[in-house]
Amino acid sequence: MKKNLVTAVLMTFATTILLGVAYPLVVTAIATVLFPANANGQLIQRDGKPIGSRIIGQAFTGPGYFHSRQSAAGSGYDAANSGGTNLGPTNQKLIDRVRQNAASLQSENAGKSVPADLVTTSASGLDPHISPASAEFQVPRVSRERGMRADEVQELVAKHTADRQLGFLGEPRVNVLELNLDLDSKRPLQETVVK
Amino acid sequence: MTTNGWFQIAFFLMLILAVTKPMGVFMARVFNREKTFMDPVLRPLERLLYRVTGVDENHEMRWTEYAVSMLLFSAVSMLVLYVIERAQAFLPFNPQKLGGVAPALAFNTAASFTTNTNWQNYSGETTMSYFTQMAGLAYHNFASAAVGMAIAIAFIRGIARREMETIGNFWVDLVRSCLWVLLPFCMVGALALVSQGVVQNLKPYDTVKLIEPQHVPKVDANGKPVLSPDGKSVMDTVTEQTIAQGPVASQEIIKEWGTNGGGFFNANSAHPFENPTPLSNLIELFCIFAVSSGLTYTLGRMTGSPRHGWAVWAAMAILFLVGVSVTYWAEARGNPLLVVGVDQHASALQSGGNMEGKEVRFGIANTALWATVTTDASCGAISGWHDSFTPLGGMVPLVNIMLSEVIFGGVGAGLYGMLIYIILAVFIAGLMVGRTPEYLGKKIEAYDVKMAMLVVLVFPLVILGFSAISAVEGFGSSSILNPGPHGLSEILYAFTSQAGNNGSAFNGLTTNTLWYNTAGGITMLAGRFLMILPMLAIAGNLARKKYVPASLGTFPVTTPLFTALLIGVILIVGALTFFPALSLGPILEHLLMSAGKTF
User: Fold this and answer.
1) Which residues pair with residue B225 across a beta bridge?
2) In this prediction, what percent of chain A has a pLDDT beyond 70?
3) How many structural domains does chain A have?
4) Where are the domains of chain B?
5) What global pTM score does this model have?
6) Rounded distance, CA B302 to CA B418, Å?
C-alpha cells in the first residue's frame, strides 16, 4: 500500500512532465516549423493589419455583403466565446426566430424558400461557411448593391466554393469571409453604403 | 438522406474494420511484453520511468493490489489536477491571465477528467490557461485512457490465465499503454491535424479588425441585455474580433484517440480550430473507434479464440449501424415545425435537414455519424449540439450511453463493459439448456454473475436517482433551458452522460451550479470506480479457475447465434431499464412535435 502510494505520486509527476509538458511543447515546435500558418490560425492580412482568420467566420449584415449564418457565439461570431443556442426542436423561441429571419430574407428574394443553413445557428457560432444554395440565394441582392452583373458575382462565388474533400468527404461550402474580401477588392462598396 | 452520405458512413466503418486486426495484434504484443518495432526508442524510456518511480516490472499483482494501485493513481492525479486548476493564475503559460477555477467547478472538472468523462461545466477559452489545458486536462486524457486500457487487459488476463492468483502489474500496463499505444500515434496524428488547420501555439489570443463593424445589443456581465430608461435595448458597435488560440492539436488528437472528448474550446469539435475540414473530421472519427475496435481482436488473440473477438466486433458493428441509421434519418428529415419559408431538402447545393447547431462543412450525414460514434464510444466530443437535434435524433446518443457504451465503447472501458454483457449472455444461455455456463473454458458461477449484476445495477441507480431529484427540486429544474419534455431529456442526458463517463451533453442545461457540480462529480466517480472494482473482482476470480475443455453442451461464443444473443441481452437489459424515462422525454417530445406542439 505505502509503496504503491509513493509510486502513484512519482508516476503522476513523471508522466505529467512527459505527456503534459514535453509532448505538447515538442508538437508545438514541430508544427510551427512544418505548418507555420496553420499552427497560428491562418490569419489574413489586409494593408498590413490582421483582419480575420481564413477558417473563423465573421458577421456580415450589410446588404452589399454575403451574410454569414446566424451565430450564438457571444454577441455573434465572438471567437473567444464559441457555442450554439442549444435551443431544442420544439422550443417556441427557435421557431419564432427562424420564421422571422426566413420572412425578412424572403422579402429580398420573393417566393423562394430560404436554405436551412442560412436561418439556423451553427454549432460553433464561428462557421466560416454557408452552403452553395445560401450563396445562390443572396446573389440577386449582392449584385444589385454592388452594381455587378449576376454572373460576375456567381463567378466569384464559384471561385470560393470548395467541393467535397477528396471528392466525397463532407459537404460543398462557400467561404464567406474570403468571398466578401474578393468582392471588396473587385468592386468596393460606396462609403455611404457602409453605415 | 443522400447516397454520398451513406457512402461516407460505410467508408468510415470499412476503415475501422481494416484497422481492427493490426491494432489488435499490436496491443496484444505490447501487453504480453513481446517485441514491437518501437522498442528501440521506447524501452529505454520505459526503464527510466520504472527507475524513477520505483516500479519492479516483473512483480505480479493479485486483483486487490491491482485495484488499490489504480485507485491510488487516480486519487493522486485527480488531486494534482484540482490544485493546478485552483492555482493556474500563479502557473506559467497563461497569456490571457485567467484566474483560478472556483472550488466546486474545479472538483467537478478534476473528477470529470480523471474518470475519462470530460464533462465540462466551463468553456475552455474563457476559463482554462494553456498550462491547465496541457499539463492538467490533456495529461488526464492520456492517463485516464491508459487506466481504462489497463483494466481491460487485466480482465482479459483473468479469462486467459489458469489457476493463477495474479492478473498483471498495474504500473506496467499503465506505462505501456501510454508509451506504446497512445503517445507515438498522438505525435503523428497531432501533426496530421495541424496540416488540416488545427492550431498549435502558445501565443495570446489574436485581435483582428472586422471588415464590417457590427451593431449589436449591449449586454451586461451576466449576458442580460442593457436597457435604456425607456425600455429599448442599448446598441453597441463591435469593431474587433478576438480569436482564441492555444496548443489545440496536441490535445485534440488524444481527446479522440483516448475517447476522452473534452474540447479545448467550448464548441468542441465543431470549432473550426479543433476540426477545420472534412478530412480532419474523418481522422478524428477514426481515432475515436480505432483502439476500442482493436481491443476486440486483442481479446480474441489473448484468449486464443480470434473468432470470438470477431463475434463481439460484429455485435458492436450491428448496433452501430442501427444507431447511425436512425440518427441520420431523423436529422435529414429536418424539423417539421420549420417548413414555412425554409428549404430543408437535401440537394447538390445544400445538405438540408435540421441544421440548427450544425456546421456546413459537416452537414447532416457527418454530424449524425459523429453523434453516434461519440456516444457509442465513451468519447463525448461533439461536432454539433445534441440539444438541438430532433427528438429521435437526440435519443440515439442518449440510448447509446444508456447501453453503457459497449458499442466499441471507450478505450478499455468499452471492452470491459462488453465483457459484463458477455458473462450475462452465456449465463442466460446456460440457464436455457440447464448447464453451468462456461466462457472460453472458464465456468461462470454465482460469484461472477453477482459481481456482473452489481455493475449493471449501479448504472441505472445513479442515473435515475439523481435525474429524479433534479427534475422535482428547484435547484435542479431551474437549470433547464428548453421547456416541455425536452427539459427532462436535458437532465436525463446529463446524468446518463456523466454516469457513463461520456461527457457529451444536452448543453442547454446550466450545470455550473453547486448542485450539478457536486452531484455530477459524484456520479462520474461512481460511474467509473464502482464499475471497475467488481470487474477486477471477476477478473481475479476467473484467473484462479481451472480450465474446462469445451464439450458438446458448451454454448459456442464464436457464432452468429452468440452475436444475436449478445445483442439481445444488451438491448433487453439496457433499454428496458430506461424505457419509462425515455418515453417521458424524447419519445413524448417526438409525438408532440409531430402534432405541431411547441413549448
Assistant:
1) B219
2) 97
3) 2
4) 206-243, 412-594
5) 0.96
6) 16
Our CA angle for B394, B395, B396, nearest 5°, is: 95
Domain that holds residue A104: 41-186
A164 and A100 assigned to the same domain: yes
What would the grid cell of residue A43 be? Answer: 490569419
- CB pair distance less than 8 Å for A23 and B186: yes
DSSP A98-138: HHHHHHHHHTTSTTPPEEHHHHSB-SSS---EE-HHHHHHH
Nearest beta carbon to residue A86 from set B201, B265, B387: B387
CB contact under 8 A, B342 and A113: yes
Compute the distance between CA of residue B293 and CA of residue B290 in angstroms, rounded to an integer.
5
Query: In a 3-state reduction of DSSP, which class is residue B211?
Result: strand
Residue of A nearest to B212 (CA): A60
Check B54 against A91: CB less than 8 A apart. Answer: no
- Same-domain pairing of A112 and A175: yes
Q: What is the ipTM of this complex?
A: 0.95
- Closest residue in A to B204 (Cα) is A40
- CA–CA gap between residue B568 and residue B425 (Å, rounded): 9
Per run of 10 residues, the mean pLDDT along chain B (length 599 residues) is 96 98 97 95 97 96 97 97 96 94 94 94 93 96 96 95 96 97 97 97 95 86 76 86 96 96 95 97 97 96 95 97 97 93 94 96 97 95 96 96 94 94 93 88 94 92 95 93 94 95 93 94 94 95 94 90 96 89 96 94
Q: Give a yes or no: residue A195 inside a domain.
A: no
- pLDDT at position B481, please? 93
pLDDT > 70? residue A194: no
Q: Is residue A193 in some structural domain?
A: no
The answer to whether B356 contacts A87, with C-beta atoms less than 8 Å apart, is yes
In B96-138, which residue ranges form alpha helices assigned H by DSSP? Answer: 103-114, 124-127, 130-131
Same-domain check for residues A84 and A1: no
A17 and A57 together in one domain: no
A171 in Cβ contact with B362 (< 8 Å) = yes
- Cα of A31 to nearest chain B Cα, Å: 6
Which cell numbers in the block locate residue B464?
Answer: 435515475
Contact A73 B267 (CB under 8 A): yes
Helix axes B139-160, A2-15, angle to 10 degrees: 130
Grid cell, residue B256, equals: 479522440
Chain B positions touching A5 (Cβ under 8 A) are 72, 76
Give CA–CA dist A154/B14, Å, rounded: 38
Please, which residues have CB within 8 angstroms of residue B172's CB and are 6 or more apart in sequence? B33, B55, B57
Q: What is the DSSP letter of B166?
A: B
Rounded Cα–Cα distance for residues B509 and B490 (Å)? 6
Verify that A7 and A45 share a domain, yes or no: no
Q: Contact at 8 Å (CB) between B170 and B70?
A: yes
Q: DSSP of B341-368, one letter per residue?
A: TEE---BTTB--S--TT--TTTHHHHHH
The number of helices, as runs of H, and strands, as runs of E, in chain B is 21, 5
Task: For B175-188, give the secondary structure using H, E and C.
Answer: HHHHHHHHHHHHHH
Measured between beta carbons, the chain A residues lying within 8 angstroms of B196 are 38
CA distance linking residue B370 with residue B288, whole number of Å: 10
Q: Which residues contact B491 (CB under 8 A, 6 or more apart)?
A: B467, B470, B471, B476, B477, B480, B509
Residue by residue, DSSP assigns B220-264 as -TTSPBPB-TTSPBPEEEEEEEEE---B-HHHHHHHHHTT----S
